[in-house]
Amino acid sequence: MSEDKHFQFAERLLAWFSSNAREFPWRRETDPYRILIAEKLLQQTTFGHVLKVYDPFFERFPDVQSLAEAEVSDVENTIRALGLQRKRAREFKKIGSAILNEHKGEIPSDKRDLLRLSGVGEYIANAVLCFVFDKDTPIVDVNVRRVVGRFFGWKEMSDREIERRLSRLIPKGRAKQFNWGV
User: Fold this and answer.
1) At residue 1, does pLDDT exceed 80?
2) Could you give the residue numbers annotated as active site?
3) What integer is the mean pLDDT of 1-6?
């Protein structure tokens, strides 16, 4: 694949995002806890459903400590609109406890530590690295696979291979816009 096509993809994507970006509260967020939780809320859920619980969640659980100390039933009630609330509530509680007890209340900046958090996989770990710690890390999901499959023909590749290739395409310091654009 030519460097020109790689450059063209990144430039077109960033230009498209610049004109078509949608506003979501989590995209303006700078608090690491809120970014991690927003990514977890967005897991297997539409943004419309997350918008319904986003503010109530952070009103009820404004920080790691309040989440770690919460009753699972309180978390369940707060996220009921997302579905799978029992499973998700337990994961949120475990995340809060792990961050409080194992990471001194700080969101881990190491991918291995992020992956040890309950219910956090590659996508959320990479999203946190990108959106919290400004790492030029690609975030791969089914939508990204579809876009790069069409543009580059990368249809039979693993997520890891797509991630490896995309990491070379992200313009330095533009990973947030690049990932939101895809």
Assistant:
1) no
2) 39
3) 70
Do 69 and 157 sit in the same domain of this protein? no
8 A C-beta contact, residue 144 and residue 150 = no
Residues 71 and 145 occupy one common structural domain: no
Tokens of 75: 């978390």
Per-residue pLDDT, averaged over 144-160, amounts to 93
Q: Which domain holds residue 14?
A: 3-22+137-181
Output the DSSP codes for 127-152: HHHHHTT--------HHHHHHHHHHH
Confirm if 55 and 64 have CB atoms less than 8 A apart.
Answer: no
Give the count of domains, the chain.
Answer: 2
CATH number of the structural domain spanning residue 100: 1.10.340.30
Query: pLDDT class for 33, splitting at 50, 70, 90?
Result: very high
Contact 126, 140 (CB under 8 A): yes
**Cα–Cα distance for residue pair 132/18, rounded to 1 Å:** 21
Let me know whether 112 and 157 are in one domain: no
Span 70-83, pLDDT tens digits: 999 999 999 999 98
Residues 68 and 147 in one domain: no
What is this structure's pTM? 0.93
C-alpha pair distances (Å), 83 with each of 67, 78, 86: 19, 11, 8
Tokens 């297997």 correspond to 44
